[in-house]
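Weekly structure sync, notes
Attendees: PL, DS, HV (note-taker this week)

Item 1: ABC transporter substrate-binding protein
DS walked through the input record. Source organism listed as Sporolactobacillus shoreicorticis. Sequence as pasted into the shared doc:
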Amino acid sequence: MKKTIGLLVALCMVFLMLAGCSSSSQSGGDSGKKSIDIKMGTEAWIGYGPWWIADKAGIFKKNGININIIMFKQDSDINAAFASDKIQFANIASHTAMKMKANNDLNLKGVVFLDESKTADAMITKSKYKSLDSLKGKKIAYEEGTTSDLLFRQAVKSAGLSMNDFKVVYMAASDAGLALISNKVDAAVTYEPYISTIIKKDKSVHRIYSGEDSPGLISDMTVAKSNYLSKNPKVKATLQKVWDEALDYWKEHPEEGNKIVAEASGTSTDELPTILDGIKFFTLDEQKEDADSGNLNKGLSNIKEILKGQKQLKKEIDVEELIDIK
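Item 1 (cont.): predicted structure, written out as tokens:
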């Protein structure tokens, strides 16, 4: 009898433990939905701001995602982490996604088309230089393989010049502007918040070329590998929902949202509104509208042709297969 009672007690304890484990794997308390752990990579680019807001404001958690956002300093670091499956989602430039697919045989999909940069990506220099032509023979700093690289090459092409007309100095986007004001280079190609920080430190610094001069060239997307999306079919729609809710939250709580983005990107809340004027964020409806109208594929095709012209793609890719936002 004692053995029978003991067995019953043991079984009850096991049942309670399993029930506890089941409960702990759920999110939202009353939602009853199992949560999923996700590692997402970002850099200090303000275009990724809504993800930081979604994290701090509990939007990920509310939608059943236990998020771990990892901040990387350089494109090469986040690209390597994504390729080696250390993160499931990476926020990268559209041209980077194309190069990963064409050059590294990564079967990836863009699940959120995040933003388009206008003045938030730019080539900056001292006031004595008024045009790209005036910088011939000078040192230009930027991070290799990044949006800065793409932007500079497009600027050179637009001016009818050659890459051989300049002395390129590769360094991290966060360091390029500092090299400019310390007179180690004559110009820098970088992005916000680094641009505003440098201009604030040296009033003689100004933009001579930006994403606004080549509309649609600089854009970003959140990507995941196709096999991961196949194994987790509900994650894509959930992330898209989180993105939209984060944009709405930012509109409804601008001070709080700006504070979160400023802290994550290393900028000040005073500078942020001006920086945000140079970035276009896309809601899910806008993304779908651009996809249905063909405008999204048109913009991506333009980027692809530029990369092909620069011989940066090892094989042909179909831009329609790059995005999966429907």
